[in-house]
Amino acid sequence: MTKFKAIISIVSLALLVSACGSKVESSSNSNAAQQENVQVATAPAKVVNIPSYFEATGTLAGDAVSDVAPTIAGRIVAVNFDIGSYVNKGDVLVKLDDRDAQIRLDQALAQLDQQRKSVATAEANVDQAVANLRQAQVRLGLRDGESFDIKDFSQVISVTAQLELAEKEFRRAEKLLETGDISKSAYDQRKSQRDALIGQLAEARSNAAVAIRAINTAEAAVNTAETNVRNARAAVRTAETQVDQARKSLSDTSILAPFSGYVSEKTADVGEYLSPNAPNTKICSIVRTAVLRLKIDIPEQSIGKVSVGQGVSAQVSAYPDRKFAGTVARILPSLNAQSRTLTVEAEIENVGGLLKPGQFATVRITQSKPEPAVVVPASAVRSDGDVNKVFVVKDGVAQERFVKTGLLENDMIEIKQGVAENEVVATSSLDKLGDGMIVKQ
Fold first, then answer.
1. What pLDDT was estimated at residue 152?
2. How far is residue 348 from each of residues 15, 52, 285, 352, 354, measured CA to CA in Å?
3. What is the DSSP letter of 82?
4. Which residue in 30, 94, 161, 231 is a FRET match for 290, CA 20 to 30 A apart?
5. Distance CA 419, CA 405 (A)
6. Is the pLDDT reported for residue 388 higher than 80?
7. pLDDT tens column, 68-109
8. Which pLDDT value is given to residue 23?
């Protein structure tokens, strides 16, 4: 009996100790739960219409690449660039020795000046020839374009009239002399008058012929002078062409940048002799990078989703947190037979020159019709490596959800999987949260 009482006492003691231990553990759990309360900000998941897109890959290339070469031969006296230099359109890249070109220009200018003086002289000769022609025309009473005959000469007309009268008087005198009605001396006087007028008519005709020859000579002189003027003016034009060529040759001694961009290759050095007829005479290569061409490979099954004018968003590994906007500018007419892809070119504004030709890019091509999607604030997503998760707050408890994210627009991110519309997510203190923690909003 005593032994039985002892056993009961031991059991009672054990139960008492166990009860005390449960109270201590319960108190400890209560304190831990109180410590797990985390103050968080929250926001509801919303459904909004966002642009849809599909992804592809592409490679960046310069908008334009130019191999700069000389157009004339010459020795390099100055090089004003180096590899990696940024040059503006019209900058002098290389200067060639211009002494011979300057001499040829001076000679051409001197020849032009001489030809212009020849024109002035020829024009003065024309003026003099025209003045001589006018004088000859005045003597004959002619105007430009009128013809003239010797019989129309005024002196010839006058003497011809006198001669006709004298001839009649002489014929009458002949008849009177035969009948004895006139003396031989009177007859001789009539004959002398007629013969004198015949001489005067011949002289008048000669004077008229001289006047006509003077007009013809003056007209020929005018024509010759005008021909000389035309020839002199043609010589001036030839000399002006030679001056232009000489100026161009002088200008070509300065090799200019064809557009603004970066120097990607340099092959010129001071003292080197360049000849445009020699192979591989380029002095440098320039790449225009203000706008880059993004060559995108579109899978065959997606070619119907791409059209000129669509917006694109590109990401490169060098700047994983940045997106570079662009627009589809060109679509090749055929697919690559080996890869079964269609090459599309988009133009990307290279803001700040961050992008470089040759970089690989992941591209999102925006579709024309927006689609509904669940979105939450970007601050609600915590990334651990390749894993993204959010904490859905329900009845004061944080529930950890692994999610699949999509398009990021401003400060909202698409949740493709893991969160439903109107569910409340934590947007702050994510580093303090764990699954099942009690939170305060």
1. 63
2. 78, 20, 21, 12, 11
3. -
4. 94
5. 10
6. yes
7. 999 999 999 999 999 989 999 999 999 999 999 999 999 999
8. 43
Q: Could you give the 3-state DSSP secondary structure of residue 406?
A: strand
C-alpha to C-alpha distance for 404 and 418, rounded to whole angstroms: 7
**Exposed/middle/buried for residue 279 (C-beta within 10 Å: 0-12, 13-18, 19+):** exposed
User: What is the distance between the alpha carbons of residues 291 and 353, in angstroms, rounded to a whole number?
Assistant: 9
Please, what is the Cα angle at 97 between 91 and 98, to 5 degrees? 85
The overall average pLDDT reported for the chain is 83
> Going from the N-terminus, what domains does the chain have, and what CATH number goes with each?
38-49+371-440 (2.40.420.20), 55-61+287-366 (2.40.30.170), 65-96+252-274 (2.40.50.100), 103-250 (1.10.287.620)
C-alpha to C-alpha distance for 306 and 285, rounded to whole angstroms: 33
Contact 79/254 with Cβ under 8 angstroms? no
The pTM of this model reads 0.55
Query: Are the CB atoms for 170 and 193 separated by under 8 Å?
Result: yes
Amino acid occupying residue 74? G
Calpha distance 136→154 (Å, rounded): 14
Cα 406 to Cα 376: distance, rounded to the nearest angstrom:
11
Pairing of β 46-50 and β 319-335: unpaired
Whether the per-residue pLDDT at 189 is higher than 50: the answer is yes
Going by the DSSP 8-state scheme, the letter that residue 282 receives in this structure is -
* Antiparallel, parallel or unpaired: β 38-39 and 311-316: unpaired
Q: What share of the chain is helix, strand, coil (3-state, %, to 5)?
A: 45, 35, 25
